[in-house]
Amino acid sequence: MAELRPSGAPGPTAPPAPGPTAPPAFASLFPPGLHAIYGECRRLYPDQPNPLQVTAIVKYWLGGPDPLDYVSMYRNVGSPSANIPEHWHYISFGLSDLYGDNRVHNTFCSGDHVSWHSPLDNSESRIQHMLLTEDPQMQPVQTPFGVVTFLQIVGVCTEELHAAQQWNGQGILELLRTVPVAGGPWLITDMRRGETIFEIDPHLQERVDKGIETDGSNLSGVSAKCAWDDLSRPPEDDEDSRSICVGAQPRRLSGKDTEQIRETLRRGLEINSKPVLPPINPQRQNGLTHDRAPSRKDSLESDSSTAIIPHELIRTRQLESVHLKFNQESGALIPLCLRGRLLHGRHFTYKSITGDMAITFVSTGVEGAFATEEHPYAAHGPWLQILLTEEFVEKMLEDLEDLTSPEEFKLPKEYSWPEKKLKVSILPDVVFDSPLH
Predict the structure, then answer these.
(1) What would the pLDDT profile of 149-165 be if each residue is shown by its tens digit?
(2) pTM of whole model > 0.90?
(3) Can you tell me whether residue 198 is helix, strand or coil?
């Protein structure tokens, strides 16, 4: 579920939309999950029974590219007493909301971010990325397939996105609420905003810096253009399970590994009274997931799953030397990984978007990792773990200082620590777009 509230002019009227009181003749054509969703819309907008409806020409379950298949548009009068202007309220929903289809696996949570790198309205706006938060007006609803929570998309500038990555999304959302022109209490996106919140109020940067120092980053991982090579064995070795695979059948992450990484990325973004990264093997009660009592250490341990793991992935290999490869955007996050995560006793995962592999950095305080201080580089199939001591992290931060200003250097860029047998390369995107990278 997601919604966007940009500024803009009213749109055209539309024919009546089916709702909870649809005639019996249409009931069989009405997706079961839609009744509850429209019921909440009617509660909030009782005077607008016929909102403008937009739907995908080719539905997602028929091969369409967008799982958000339906969009309803409502005029919101705002709240003059709270200095909230009139705006348009777009409510979108997709396949899993309507039919409970389990083919839609991507789940957004409050505090998540989306790096878009383009004005959200195709203009020259500085609003080029998104944060997500719980909708301040739409209440969660019960559907035949479970509870649906409405999330709001909040447009942000690049500097605000970076602050959310370095610290946490919820913290930046709270700062946006304090600046009327940047969102205000309802976090309304104004695509005409030309200044970041840090330019509007320089004191807000101090709050972010203090938060980073105190809390670290709650960003546990990203989807990225990345790869790794095992330099301790020749490339022609048939037993090599490196992530860079040339051929039609690259080795794949097992279902258990994939789920563990997905859960790490998903749960690591939640902000509450529980640990920043809850354990991967949560206790389950009455079909619900409950985290164990807070622990000082993060955990990567996995439960005694009955998932079938290919025989070739059972053995974990210790590597002597590794070469990590990132594109410029992913490489710019390495200082965040080191300073905001590992120095706070946590871990950080890069999950490749161009291949079935992952790189997880872990600190000495992380339990359940298969990389150890004795063998800091270890691979489980195409999943590589790298354990870095605090001393080495500090050294890397010094050597990687120019990554905080990536526009100042040319690609490719290489960093090497021969005594640690570790090499990191920052490469152009085209290297990862090639099937034979």
Answers:
(1) 999 999 999 999 999 99
(2) no
(3) helix
